[in-house]
Amino acid sequence: MLYREYGRLVYAVALRALGRADLAEDATQQTFVRAWQAADRIDVDRDPAAWLATISKRSAIDLYRREARRPKVALADVSADDPSLVTLPPDLGALDAVWHVRRAIDELPPDEATVVRLHHLDGLTQHEIAEHLGLALGTVKSRSHRAHQRLASILSHLREAPV
Questions:
Q1: Pair 52, 6 in one domain
Q2: 143 to each of 104, 140, 159, how far by Cα in Å?
Q3: 30 is in which domain, residue-wise?
């Protein structure tokens, strides 16, 4: 009942003191824990708003001090093998699609497969591919076009929506 009546007040005091919603929520929780622990000393004839606001402010100050002592490191400066970093498991659907695409590229004639690999896997432009292979730009474009048509045909099953 006390929380329903004064929860917004306590949160507002904590938020004003801390400036962060996540810390204000922690301070609000701490305030009501401390109020519950001191319930035997509460004056039932007085409005508890000022008492709760004071506890909230003190809880906020304690949280602020605790956060100030906590070391802060930029995420870019954390090593990749740090145990505090969490990585998501690979998306199996995406891995399966990549496997199908690579297998489809292997089915292309060698001249077309080379153009596709240089373009999509190595990131070369068609001009760069032409220079790299010593071919005319038009030849690279026509091989790329034929290769993409074949790939679209080979991989058409990936476009179908799962049932």
A1: yes
A2: 15, 5, 23
A3: 2-72
pTM: 0.45
**Residue that is written with structure tokens 């301070």 in the block:** 27
Q: In whole angstroms, what is the distance from residue 46 CA to residue 29 CA?
A: 22
Q: How far apart, in Å, do the first and last CA atoms of the chain sit?
A: 51
Q: How far apart are CA 14 and CA 98, in angstroms?
A: 50
CA distance 18 to 60: 6
Give the pLDDT of residue 13: 94
Residues of the chain with pLDDT under 70: 88, 160-163
The separation between CA 147 and the C-alpha centre of its own chain, rounded to angstroms, equals 36
- The predicted pLDDT at position 160 comes to 67
Domain end: 72, 104, 131, which one?
72
DSSP annotation of 90 reads: P
In this structure, which amino acid lies at residue 96?
A: D
